[in-house]
Amino acid sequence: MAFQASAAIELNGELSQGALVRAKVQPGTQVFLNDEPVKVNAQGQFAFGFAREAELEQMLKLVYPDGLTELKPLKLTKRQYRIQEVNGISKKIMKPDPKAQARAAKDSKQVKAARAQFTPNDAFNQQFIWPLTGRISGVYGSQRIYNGKPGTPHYGVDVAAKTGTVVVAPADGVISLSVPDMFYSGGTMIIDHGYGVNSSFLHLSKLYVKEGDVVKQGDKVAEVGSTGRSTGPHLDWRINWYQMRLDPTTIVPSMKSVLAKENAK
Question: 159: which of 137, 195, 222, 227 is 20 to 30 A away, CA to CA?
Fold first, then answer.
């Protein structure tokens, strides 16, 4: 991870599209990202992110306790994403029936409500761990063109594993959503880490915890599956800052380094 520091602000994270950044300022400082207020805890810590196709020029505004205002321009790195063309997909898969669409819309409403929550939990500032280690089978930002029509980009990182493999909490938090069967994502769980940062886990075969449960980093929370619209067992892990979809790999060590440590034990 890149680390940038000044007397006024510390930024911990990549300044790139799709990245989650944790930061610290003098306690009592007000923070604005592109003129939108960002919630800051009592210690001056906060988080923010940049969408998959975010503008490369961003602006942080700091209003110090004494009223002095400072502007800090941020220059983002543009990312290249994997694009794949897939032809011959049936109309049924391309456009589910009205009943399925209604169910999917209801699911989406639940997920958005969970991600919209604000809780004063400082777990967002922890060093996150992988909820599951193994072969990465899907990456953030990738996109398929189905029958010439662009599909929704993939907003998570997929880790291939057998059904029943245990998934752990990547950081402390509170379960804000726990649903065993959503149309697209199957068994779905969201952990609220505080200040808008939350983790989503998709296609789970079993959920160990329910909404409102408090979990600690490393706690067993679910099992890998292939539920919902999935072609094989894997964990789809996603990180969001409120509704903004971000790349989980921007806040954890590389999978290669983690696996190397595991193999060295």
Answer: 195
d(CA 222, CA 245): 22
> Mean of the pLDDT values across residues 225-246?
96
Question: Strands of 9-12's sheet, edge to edge?
Answer: 3-5, 9-12, 20-25, 45-49
What mean pLDDT value characterizes the chain? 93
pTM value? Answer: 0.92
Amino acid code (one letter) for 43: Q
